[in-house]
Amino acid sequence: MTTLDGRRVLTRAEIMERHGLGRSTLEKWYRERASNGHPEPVGTVGSQLAWDAGAWDRWYAARRSRTVPPGLVTRDELASRHGVTRHRLKQLWADRASNGHPDAAHRAGKALYWDEAAWTAWFRSLEDRPPNEEPDDLVTLAEAARILGLAQTSVTVYVSRPPAGWPDPVRVEPLRGGRVRRLYRRRDILAYAARSTG
Questions:
Q1: Which residues contact 182 (CB under 8 A, 6 or more apart)?
Q2: What pLDDT, on a 0 to 100 scale, did the predictor assign at position 130?
């Protein structure tokens, strides 16, 4: 944390890093400070404006409580609560098409917010996945039940009465006696698990 005359201060770059906010959003809030109550800078650090850290954090927390629905968290909050680096979280988000990462539940400018319960359930399933299980692997209905932590008999009814969000099989293989084997993409099952816990 930067200090100025013994006071803890934040530069715009530090606010961007700390809160995952974009420069244009911060500049807009500062321009509109007469109407939104944004704190005035207390000085400069080099050529950058600096704000009292406590005052800025209190203002941002109050603004966020008015604009972000409860139960949603930032990437930094996820990193802190789950002991994961921001870099790793950015990688997981970038690979969301293959790993089933939940979509952001809310956007405020460039800041993203996730439903904490849904994200946590998805992350636990990711941690529990053996390393040789790839997101694009095909799984049977019985394996889907195991991934979801359900008894196999619980998901057999999903074929005729699928719950909301249940994925379609990517392949159906005929078996003897007129039966079929339905194969699902692992990432689709993980994505369903993340949505259904939200």
A1: 140, 141, 159, 169, 171, 172
A2: 59
CA distance 101 to 195: 10
Other Cβ atoms within 10 Å of 50 Cβ, number:
23
* CB neighbourhood size of 192 (10 A): 22
Residue 176 is given by DSSP the state G
**pLDDT tens track for 24-43:** 889 999 999 999 999 999 99
- 43's torsion region: left (phi>0), alpha (psi -120 to 50) or beta? left
Show me where the domains of the chain are located.
2-67, 72-114, 138-196
pLDDT digits (tens, 9 = 90+) for 95-132: 887 788 999 988 876 778 899 999 998 888 876 665 55
C-alpha 58/C-alpha 43 separation (Å) is: 18
pTM above 0.70, yes or no: no
d(CA 116, CA 41): 33
pLDDT at 133: 66
CATH, domain range 2-67: 1.10.10
